[in-house]
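Per reviewer request, we include the raw input and output of the structure prediction for the construct analysed in the revised manuscript.
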Amino acid sequence: MLVDFGYLVMPDKLLSLGPLAAVNVVDGLAASLVLIAIIALGVIAGASDAVQDIIVPGLLGATILAFLPFNLRLHG
């Protein structure tokens, strides 16, 4: 989580984000909730006979799954 910008402005003063550092947690929570809704939408769309109905929820879910490791700092 990003909690400060380091010594960006002045060499002896740490530029802290303070309460704004919690935005990263909110982004992850929101993405997780949207992923759950998209999975439910994909299951409902999968119940239909048309294969193309599951493409959009699948792509949206894949983008959120790609975002979450970066939000949780699980990448390299």
